[in-house]
Amino acid sequence: MFKRNLLGICLPALAIGVFGALAMHAQAPEGKDVSWAFPVADKVQPDVDMKKLHQVPGSTLSLTVPQIDDLLNPPDWFPSEHPAPPKIVMHGNAPNGLACGSCHLMNGEGHPESAALVGLPANYIIRQMEYFKSGARKDPARMNGIAKQVTDEEVRQAAEYFASLKPTLWTKVVEADTVPKSRVTRGRMRLPAVDGGTEPLGKRIIPLPNDAERIELRDPHTGFTAYAPKGSIKKGETLAKTGGKGKTIQCTICHGTDLHGIGDVPGIAGMHPTYVTRMLYAFKNGNANGGLDQLMKKVVEKLDDDDILNVAAYVASAPR
Ligand code: HEC
Ligand code: HEC
What is the spatial distance between Cα 298 and Cα 291, in angstroms, rounded to a whole number? Predict the structure, then answer.
């Protein structure tokens, strides 16, 4: 287990650009304890060996942690498994237009603290970049700065790249009463605690990597197990498919019967459950407020914290 050093490794200019804002809290709704969906880095982090070379199974590459965490030149462990990436995905547009393939991975699956772009409609991705750029959608620590720096042409190329990729089974949702104890890395990813142990899950969804070391290496061949409260998937399914007697609107109407999307409306099946949760709060509190986001307002209006958790557990467990 090693600590990530996002600040020390890239161009000095980055430290005052996007990274200057990295310490900012994610957009957690005020007055609620849904911190499980809005991870904040632990103050104390384990030490990391910056010189050690790392490999992932099946790849010929050997890379150090600073190379793996270089947000302007992320690792492409398996270049033959995806189309040739455009420059913006592999190398970004310095200083603030960071390479999309670093946080979202070259396979577009991303980690729970970011988002999956894999297989989203290209027009949807382009629209979100417009919302981030105008500030209609808020992610001040990362996407707002990135969207301001990149060109329309780069956005189009990135959108077409991620839209062309095929989703995999990336997050498996299991219902449980207890969960391994965890810690949050500097990059805000949740990993099993160094000293192990378990704790009650309570009303939370906790995604943990199936192989923490490989996930930290940004290996695209290993995903996550998300622990969700017992009964949450079924309750979420009822809300999603029936609308819960007027509590919400059936998700299937707009996102498709299998939640795989219709036209420009994105598929949501199999998305990171913490990301789905963050988005449902973002629609509620105005942090996602673009033109088409208005369609989600009525959907979330009457959902309480339990409903949101249940819907997120169901959506994340739906086959892609
Ligand atoms: C430093 C990490 C980082 C980099 C680099 C990055 N992103 Fe993101 N991206 C995020 C995070 C975090 C989110 C989730 C924001 C939120 O929760 O609202 C996100 C969300 C998104 C979304 C919204 C996804 C959805 O389903 O609505 C899009 C689109 C996106 N990013 C595109 C890009 C593109 C294009 C690039 C490259 C130009 C890029 N990102 C580079 C961290 C990053
Ligand atoms: C009336 C149509 C409509 C209904 C019903 C609806 N959605 Fe949506 N939803 C949308 C649209 C349109 C977007 C994309 C908005 C945009 O392009 O910015 C969206 C976006 C989302 C997103 C963000 C996707 C991403 O990639 O960031 C999530 C999560 C979501 N919806 C979940 C749900 C859930 C869960 C339900 C059911 C409880 C639901 N939606 C019902 C229209 C709808």
Answer: 14
Half-sphere exposure of 143 (CA within 13 A, CB side): 25
| φ and ψ of 193, to 5 deg | -60, 150
Q: How far is CA 180 from CA 70, 200, 205, 310, in A?
A: 29, 9, 12, 20
Residues 126-163: tens digit of each pLDDT: 999 999 999 999 999 999 999 999 999 999 999 999 99
Question: pLDDT band for position 27 (50/70/90)?
Answer: low
Exposure on the CB side of residue 305, measured as CA atoms within 13 A? 14
CA of 103 to the centre of ligand 1 (A): 7
Amino acid at 22: L
283-300 pLDDT, tens per residue? 999 999 999 999 999 999
Question: Does 107 sit in the ligand 1 pocket, CB within 6 Å?
Answer: no
User: Residue 19 has what pLDDT?
Assistant: 39
Q: Are 162 and 100 in contact (CB under 8 A)?
A: yes
pLDDT, tens only, 104-119: 999 999 999 999 999 9
- Tell me the two tokens of residue 217: 């290496």
Instruction: Return the residue whose CA atom lies nearest to atom 26 of ligand 2.
Output: 266
Q: Does the CB atom of residue 240 touch ligand 2 within 6 A? A: yes
- Note whether 182 and 206 are within 8 A (CB): yes
On the 0-12 / 13-18 / 19+ scale of CB atoms within 10 A, 149 is: middle
Out of 30-34, 189-193, 212-216, least confident range: 30-34
Is there an atom of ligand 1 within 6 Å of 188 CB? Answer: no
Report the nearest-CA residue for atom 8 of ligand 1: 143
Going from the Cα of 258 to the center of ligand 1, the distance in angstroms, rounded, reads 24
> Measured in angstroms, how far is the CA atom of residue 201 from the centroid of ligand 2?
27
* Structure tokens belonging to residue 98: 């960071």
